Amino acid sequence: MEEASASSLCSDVPNLLSSFVDNFVDFSVSGLFLLPPPPIENPTLASASEPSPLLRFLPALQTRLPSPDRLIAIGDLHGDLEKSKQAFRLASLIDESDRWIGGSATVVQVGDVLDRGGEELKILYFLEKLKREAARSGGTIITMNGNHEIMNVEGDFRYVTRPGLDEFKVWADWFCLGNKMKSLCRGLEKPKDPFEGIPSVFRGVKEEFFDGFKARIAALRPNGPISSRFLSQNLTVLVVGDSIFVHGGLLPQHVTHGLERINEEVRDWINGLSGRHSPACCRGRDGLVWSRKFSDELAKNCDCSTLEHVLSTIPGAKRMIMGHTIQDVGINGVCDNRAIRIDVGMSKGCINGLPEVLEIDGKRSGLRILSSNPLYLNNNSSRLATEKDEGLAFLLPENRPKQVEVKA
């Protein structure tokens, strides 16, 4: 009996070592210790006769969710960790120590974590930490793909900053060290070289940036260690209650293609199952992560008739919430508040805007802007006004406890 117990313990050593090394690398890169992920419940895969080794460990993507009591929408973050934290604090979702205090709230971050800043990986780890903490309190954090996530998985680094390259070089050093540590254990499969197939030089790129490019490609290409871990479970389109979330804009052809199908195709592509290039729904000026048909700052340039058609084809949908296009005036709505634009350019790599987030009260269908900018306190009516409503309620941090809302 003792021999069997000892044998079982020894057989667990390789997996324990692998887990230790992974946590060591995570902490070295991000400075965070991640709680163990919650158990995955995936009835679709459980009923499958022989799910693939990759999909066996992935939770089912949920494209449609019921309306929660409290729903928070956060716009583009673009590599600015401190502004990201400010946005979460603004909605009383984390405390001063960055711990989740949002209870059962649901949070949707509409994409564009990557590019324009130097703390992209730290934000990905930060969001992952909060996902695990929130799940233990009955809360939910949903992250989405923006055009910059799609670009980076495709190897398009036009908007990468030097600090962004440096951050990925640091990741690559620690990740490769972790692989060397794992290779010392006989019970573990030899880790795959993350740089396999990546060139050592890049035409048109300064030599000083070669290592950063190699690290970024290794991390973010389809089935890369970072893309498969952090981006593969992002949604590309989401319906929560009566709100549609998308980074750019959902158009009729996307609805016809199928919302669930879009999410599955993008997930499979990021996981390396469908070639180098992103699905067609994500490409071109009318791609759902690129479209600006409903986000032009001039209301007269927004295609309200197309928006109305899209909303009418999705049962119960009242509004579309999107990022992608910076709104100098802050969060606002057009087309009788049927299009709500939440990218306030908060990153220092954009316009260094003051954070704002959108709050939706599921019980009353009330919409509120939570803002850190006191200059907008008396500018409610111009932010989100309709013929029936005086405007979207507008709250500063010190006013958050007050119950002020407007039906929308």
Automatic annotation (TrEMBL):
Pfam family, any one: Metallophos
Calcineurin-like phosphoesterase domain span: 70-264
GO terms, molecular function: hydrolase activity
InterPro entries in the record: Calcineurin-like_PHP, Metallo-depent_PP-like, MPP_Shelphs
Gene3D superfamilies in alphabetical order: 3.60.21.10
Source organism, top-level taxon: Eukaryota
Name by which UniProt lists this protein: Calcineurin-like phosphoesterase domain-containing protein
Source organism: Acacia crassicarpa (northern wattle)
